[in-house]
Amino acid sequence: MSNVTKVLIANRGEIAVRIIRACRELGIPTVAVYSEADRNAMHVRNADEAYLIGAPPARESYLKIDTIIDVARKSGADAIHPGYGFLAEREDFAQACADSGITFIGPKPSSIAAMGDKAVARATVTKAGVLIVPGTEGEGGLSDDEIIAVAPQIGFPLLIKATAGGGGKGMREVFNPEDLPNALASARREAESAFGDGNVYLEKLVTGARHIEIQIMADTQGNVIYLGERECSIQRRHQKLLEEAPSPFVDDDEDLRKRMGDVACKAAAAVGYINAGTIEFLVDKEKNFYFLEMNTRLQVEHPVTELVTGMDIVKEQIRIARGRKLSREQHEIKLNGWAIECRVNAEDPYNNFMPSTGTVSASILPSGPGVRVDTCVYSGYTIPRYYDSMISKVICWGETRGEAILRMRRALEEYKIVGVKTNIPFHQNLLDSHRFMAGQFDTRFLEERFHIGEESPKHPDIAAILATLVAHHQTQHAAQIVQRGARDTSNWKWVGRYERMHR
After folding, report:
1. What tens digit of pLDDT does each residue of 434-471 get?
2. CA atoms within 13 A on the CB side of 100
């Protein structure tokens, strides 16, 4: 059984805060790492310890394996959670943890190598009898000349994809053969910058399809379960913006859900997978589904699955890393209600979604029944320009899809951020779309059938009043002195004792 008594979070932003919260509920001390741009970040403030690891660019900080392992040793952390992005799907990082006697809260290096490399994953699941989207079948990296030569056999339009990573990075759509060389060069540069690996592969671009994924969990005893599906078709440039669970396309089709879930578990078992993972499928109009890729990590959109299943996926990851059996069996997984997640990015939806950086002068989060916000932003926080533009996720639950949509509308109306532009207006327009409300969309919906409209008139006076009210509230709060509880420093020990007594 592995030791997980102190966790280093090898990440930043809202996911680092999310993992710290899960560890805190389990009574596990946490260690944060940060770049010079993240000195005042929320995850640094919330962790029990924090260590500077380098300059702002990710290559000089969050992608430095040796430095992060060294910090784990110095701090006494016996486990590392990679979150998502950065080093989360790097088998060399998982192997470095194993070589240093540190528990990697994620899959084995061999599983990451087999499924994290998208080209190898396709070959692996094909051998297991899983249908895949047509594309380059070879394992390992292909040269530009080899890719150009094989492209006509697959047929245009094509999709270039980075073999090591996701999140829309290193992806390019190609509709004509003459555009392929430049697209390859561009995709390789972006993949190298984001993941430190410039390898790419080709995939047939399936039109009119849905992007639906299955969350799986697997323990060290060989148990593999799936937690239902997530609808992830609302994408812009292959970057997901809104997700929901269950999928309105699958919804009451229990047979399709079970078949996709069984295939996902079969694909995971084919590589001896352990911990949390996601199998992504393309589903056509006739409900035929094809394996797309496997993400060997926690997903950005995991909260929607948590809300409809009642399972805390991050806590379950830690439980599995400790060598324990899954807390639930497949027959115990029931989908309750509906959940929708909106990714709130610091970008201008009225200016081609250009990133918006600066200092947040006010941040008022929505709350109330069925509303959850995972964020890394607070009033006074300066958003750096070096990383992904996502600053928070608003997740709403309802007994029905209609109720979840209504709650999300209300939550977005309550959400106030002053100082930077956000894509909240985009989400508000999307939720008002009749096609979205009817569940009639695919992966091309945003590009082909959705228009955000004109920007509403600005009201600087309202923004100024809001900022003044927030500043006044903070001043009043600072004037209050709160007595610390007598057992404030040891409450987690009491919770730990309680948990041990009830295991």
Report:
1. 999 999 999 999 988 898 876 654 555 555 566 566 55
2. 24
In 137-204, where does DSSP find H-type helix?
144-154, 180-195
Q: Are 394 and 373 in contact (CB under 8 A)?
A: yes
Q: How many CB atoms are closer than 10 A to CB 226?
A: 24
Residues 205 and 113: their CA atoms lie apart, in Å, by 25
Dist. CA 162–CA 179, nearest whole Å: 17
Which residues are CB-contacts of 211 (< 8 A; sequence separation ≥ 6)? 231, 232, 233, 235, 240, 280, 281, 282, 283, 292, 443
Among 217, 144, 236, CA closest to 182:
144
Short-list 216, 214, 220, CA closest to 320: 220
pLDDT of 83 over the 90 cut = yes
Judging by DSSP bridges, how do beta strands 49-54 and 79-81 pair with one another?
unpaired
Q: What is the pLDDT of residues 166-186, one digit of tens each?
A: 667 788 889 888 899 999 999
User: Residues in the chain, how many?
Assistant: 503
Using one digit for the tens of pLDDT, what is the confidence trace for 134-170?
A: 887 655 578 888 888 888 888 888 988 887 766 677 8
List, in sequence order, every residue forming a beta bridge with 174; answer none if it has no partner. Answer: 158
Decide: residue 462, CB within 10 A, 0-12 exposed, 13-18 middle, 19+ buried.
exposed
| The two structure tokens encoding residue 44 | 């640094």
Q: Which helix (H) or strand (E) holds 33?
A: strand 30-35
CA distance 309 to 468: 41
For the chain, the distance separating the N- and C-terminal CA atoms, rounded to the nearest angstrom, is: 16
Helix (H, G, I), strand (E, B) or coil at 91: helix
- Cβ(299)–Cβ(215) below 8 Å: yes
Q: Which residues are catalytic?
A: 297
> For 196-349, where are the alpha helices, taking DSSP H only?
254-269, 302-309, 313-321
Tokens, residue 24: 């805190």
**What is the SS3 assignment for 365-410?**
CCCCCCEEEEECCCCCCEECCCCCCEEEEEEEEECCHHHHHHHHHH
Cis geometry, peptide bond prior to residue 457 (ω within 30 degrees of 0): no
Which one, of 393, 411, 417, 400, lies nearest residue 339 by Cα?
400
Task: Give the rounded distance of the alpha carbon of 84 from its chain centre.
Answer: 6
In whole angstroms, what is the distance from residue 243 CA to residue 302 CA?
9
Cα gap 51→311, rounded to integer Å: 31
CA 397 from centroid of its chain's CA atoms: 18
Token digits for 468?
Answer: 């003044």
